[in-house]
Amino acid sequence: MAQDDQHTDAPAAEPRKPVFDGPPLSLEEELAAARAEPEPGPTIETVNESLADGVNRCPKCGSTDVQLRASSGMLVCLFCRHQWQEERVEEELGLGVGIDELEGTVVASGAGEIDEGADDIVTLTCGGCGAEVVVDTAHAMNARCHWCRHTLNVNKRTPNGAVPDAVLPFKLTRDEAVEKIREFAGKRRLFAHPRFRKEFVPENVLGVYLPYLVVDARAEASYSGVGEVQTRRWTEKSGDNTVTYYAADVYRVDRSVSFTVDDLTMEGAADRAQFDSSTTNNIVNTILPFDTKNAVRWNASYLVGFTSEKRDLDVGDLSPKLEDQLLSIGRSQVHGSLDRFDRGVRWEGEQVDVGGSRWVSMYLPVWIYSYYQENTKMLHYIAVNARTGETMGSVPVSQWRLIAAALTVGTFLEGIAGAILVGTA
Amino acid sequence: MSALLDLQVTVLASGDGAPLWILAAGPAGALGTYWAIYRYYRNNDKSHAYERDTLIDAKPVQGHEEKVDHISRTRDSDIDGDNSAKYRERVRRLR
What we know:
The complex is a heterodimer.
Chain A: H1 2-13, H2 27-35, E1 43-44, E2 54-55, E3 66-69, E4 74-77, E5 83-84, H3 89-92, E6 104-108, E7 121-125, E8 132-136, E9 142-144, E10 151-153, E11 166-167, H4 174-186, H5 194-199, E12 206-238, E13 241-267, H6 270-273, H7 281-286, E14 296-297, E15 307-308, H8 315-334, E16 345-373, E17 378-385, E18 391-393, H9 399-424
Parallel strand pairs in A: 1-6, 6-16, 11-16, 12-15
Antiparallel strand pairs in A: 2-10, 3-4, 4-5, 7-8, 9-10, 11-14, 12-13, 12-16, 16-17, 17-18
Chain B: H1 2-13, H2 25-42, H3 50-53, E1 55-58, E2 62-74, E3 92-93
């Protein structure tokens, strides 16, 4: 009996030990070990201890009227004009180094599992006057005390996923974003839906911090398939026509590549993580990448004047997507080694081993202009990356104009084709 | 629109035999115009090119190949189902 206990304990205590390290396990024990929850991996603590929940004062004059100055990327006190900034997480948390030595899943504290039942509403006690102020963390991380006008910030970790590890401050100003959006839509006026043209007001753009998980990973990807090399090409007469024939050698091809990726960025909100034809989610995805190396430690003052969206996807939810993206990256890496297969390669099997990954949650800045098209019930966006200025959008089209243009071109080409036929007959 | 011009050039260049399929140029051009303009406005085919725009540090590619067959006569100019450049098209997972 004592021996049985020992067997049962062995896989739970040391799940990584090879099974040959003792008497073989029974089927039930092996199944139990396989179903067991993985051991929690190491974490990176990212809470900004220098900040208090609620009132954060300017280090120089004590005012709480603090916000981001986009042109310099620094926090500015609106009372005494003092400017300062938080440290970059890249150096502070050592995120840029050691990717090739990553083991297991390392999760920063702000990217931890979200408590589904956690409330979005956080109540802060104003440090200025003692009033209770409510912040809806689903959309904002600051609120003004309605009695004494202090700005209150949510700086402590919340279990609902609204406080990330790091934030990348806005760099592009609102005016610059409006200009980008106007230019983007201006190039797409001719076939735009008439109602969109009438209702287009780029000044309605909103600055939003969107939640992302930024991943460093070490992986090895392997692929197997079939490739063909052309050995001969010739033509044969068949009646009035000539037919080209080919001869080829067929090869079984295997490739594998080890690589590390630095700052792979994935959507942290389920609403925007699905890309299909019924949404325009791909638009916001297209303006990636951000210069995530410049992200700084969390300080809710960076969010004053902007809205935010809380994260609702965990590391576990995104792991399959990470594997998928790593497989795609591996494919692009091995592509250069296939030059000799001039008739192409058909991959038939693939696998990826993720040796280690490190997950950090970040708020990334986006200027968004949205337009709801009533007749198709589709929400269109024009989004501007508030760091790089990359702009992408979806403009609703006028189907009638588009069909008219297509028919005109079609008729013109058909006319040319007809003339050629008649001319050579 | 450049695809359209290419198509037009192709149509004009293949005039020596003037086969009947040249009459497909009209419908093909109309569809191509619709598709090109729609895509330019709606951008529904775009996404983040993480394969290219992420910092990737790869070790040299390993692998081998073994000749298993010979095709002595075919009219196909390339292999069936070439997916070597379709990085995001998933195939069977080996494990």
